Amino acid sequence: MGEIVIVRHGQASYGTDDYDRLSPLGHQQADWLGEWLARHETGFDRIISGTLRRHRETAAGIGAHLDHGPIDKDPRLNEMQFFAMERQFRQRHGIDEDEASADPEGHFTRVMQAWKSQEIGDAPESFSDFRSRVLDALNDHARPDRRLLIVSSGGPVGIVLSQVLGLDMGAMTELILSTYNASITRLHLRRGGLRLTQFNAVPHLEHPDRRHALTWL
C-alpha cells in the first residue's frame, strides 16, 4: 500500500518584503518535524518539494534528520499566486488594504470564490489550471509500493483534499485557512485511489513549551 505524507511549509515571512522565505520560527518548525519523523517513521522512498524558497527550506530542514537521496523538486506543487490575485481583486472592487485586513479570513474566502468564478480577469493562473497541475503532480508521483514525503503549501493541500473528499469551494477554503504551518496530512493509496487518514497533524508541536509554534501565517 502506497502512502503520501504532505507537509505544509513552515512559517514564512508574512508582512516583510519577501514572504517566500522561512521565518526563524519556520526553520525551527521544520527542524522539529524532521526530528519527529526520524524517530517515528520508517523512512521515505522519495522526498519531493515545490520549487518555492519556503518549500525548499522546509524540505532541507526536515531532510537534515532523514536518510534519503536528493530532494526532488516539482513546480506543479507550488502555491497559487494569491497576493497577485488579491491585489487585482481589491483594485476591481475598490477595497483598500485596511478594509481587507479588518476581516482577513472573509476577504480570503471572497478572493478565492471570485477566482474560481473567473471574476479576476488578470489572474496569473486560472483555478482550473491550478487544480489540474497539483493533481497531475500527485498522480505522477504516487505509487502503490512507495512512501512519499511531499513539501508544499496550504493551497495544494486543499486541492488534494477537495478531490479525495469531494469538497466544494467553501469547504476547501476552510481547510486551507485551518492548515497549520509544518503540519502533516497523510493519504494512503488503495485500490487505485487515495484515502485520507490524517489531516493537519502537528505531533512535533504537542508539548506545552511549543504551543507558541502553532501558526497559520
Describe what is shown at a glance:
By secondary structure, the chain is an alpha/beta fold. It is built from eight helices and six strands, in the order βαβαβααααβααββ.
* Helix/strand order: EHEHEHHHHEHHEE
Q: Helix/strand/pairing class, anyone? A: alpha/beta
β-strand percent reads 15-25%
Number of helices: 8
Mean pLDDT: 94
Low-confidence stretches: none
Total of domains: 2
Cα distance spanning the termini? 34 Å
Question: How much helical structure, as a percent, in the residues?
Answer: 40-55%
How many strands in all?
A: 6
Which term fits the overall shape? globular
The main sheet comes to: 6 strands, mixed
Give the name of the CATH superfamily of the largest domain.
Answer: Phosphoglycerate mutase-like
Radius of gyration: 17 Å
CATH architecture of the largest domain: 3-Layer(aba) Sandwich
Architecture overview:
By secondary structure, the protein is an alpha/beta fold. It folds into 2 domains: 2-79 and 126-206, 3-Layer(aba) Sandwich (Rossmann fold); 81-124, no CATH class. It has helices at residues 24-40, 53-63, 82-93, 97-102, 104-116, 127-141, 154-165, 169-178, and strands at residues 2-8, 46-49, 72-73, 147-152, 184-190, 193-201. The chain has a 6-stranded mixed β-sheet with strand order 3-2-4-1-5-6. The longest helix is centred in the N-terminal third of the chain and has 17 residues, at 24-40. It is globular. The two termini are 34 Å apart.
What features would you highlight for this structure?
single chain; 217 residues; alpha/beta; Rossmann fold; 2 domains; 6-stranded mixed β-sheet; 6 strands
